[in-house]
Amino acid sequence: MRSENTLGCVLALVCPAAGAWAGSTNYSDLVSWEAAVSAPVTLVDFDGLTNGTLAGGMDFGPGAVVQDYQGLATSPRVDNDSPYGGGWLTNRNNPGFDEFVNGFRIDFTTPVYAVSLLDNPNEANRLRLYDANDQLVGEMSNTTGQNFLGIVTDTPVAYMTVVNLPPEDGAFAIDDLRFAVPEPGSLALLGLGGWTLLRRRR
Q1: Residues 42-98 pLDDT 10s
Q2: What is the rounded CA–CA span in Å between residue 155 and residue 132?
Q3: Confidence of residue 21 (pLDDT cuts 50, 70, 90)
Q4: What is the pLDDT of residue 202?
Q5: What is the pTM of this model?
Q6: What span, in angstroms and rounded, lies between the C-alpha atoms of 118 and 31?
Q7: Quick one: which of 40, 10, 13 has its CA closest to 178?
Q8: pLDDT of residue 142 exceeding 80
Q9: How would you write the chain as a 3-class SS string?
Q10: Which end of the chain has the least Cβ crowding within 10 Å, N or C?
């Protein structure tokens, strides 16, 4: 886990793909996503933990807390034996797990406005970002062979979810989670109202 400093504007001058929600933009590669982020970026690579470590309740980053699977009382785990190298947050076919419904949820203890991740290149996943009122503020899906998902939004993000998309095989994993916390001078870009709501929720 480490911090990366990147410079740029809140939205790239040439946006690869507009998000489905006003104020959000989707990116299909790390270079363009980083160019759109104007705050320091935290990288969570899930390395350095014992293989099979249960991640539920763990704070990575700091500031990104992994929750139990959506709708279940079981937790994702960190695996360090991936054929793609390094550590991955994975479901590894937990009993009773429906990868199309019971995905990962990661809460942000400080508001963020940009999130990206890698998934297993043999999978198709959907990343969703939510505000403090559980309103969807950004969504992006990819296809098999395209393993980068990145979203920049002008709404403070309280948490994110990731689920698998059909017709996958039940096992999925994510790696290299990146998120950006706005600097104090950037708060006007996020809207002080949304920032206040998120602070009250925490």
Answers
A1: 999 988 888 888 899 999 878 999 998 888 888 888 988 766 667 888 886 566 677
A2: 10
A3: low
A4: 41
A5: 0.80
A6: 13
A7: 40
A8: yes
A9: CEEECCCCCCCCCCCCEECCCCCEEEECCHHHHHHCCCCCEEEECCCCCCCCEECCCCEECCCEEECCCCCCCCCCEEECCCCCCCCEEECCCCCCCCCCCCCEEEEEEEEEEEEEEEECCCCCEEEEEECCCCCEEEEEECCCCCCEEEEEEEEEEEEEEEEECCCCCCCCEEEEEEEECCCHHHHHHHCHHHHHHHHHHC
A10: C
The neighbouring-strand residues paired with 161 are: 105, 128
Specify the residue for token string 């700091």: 62
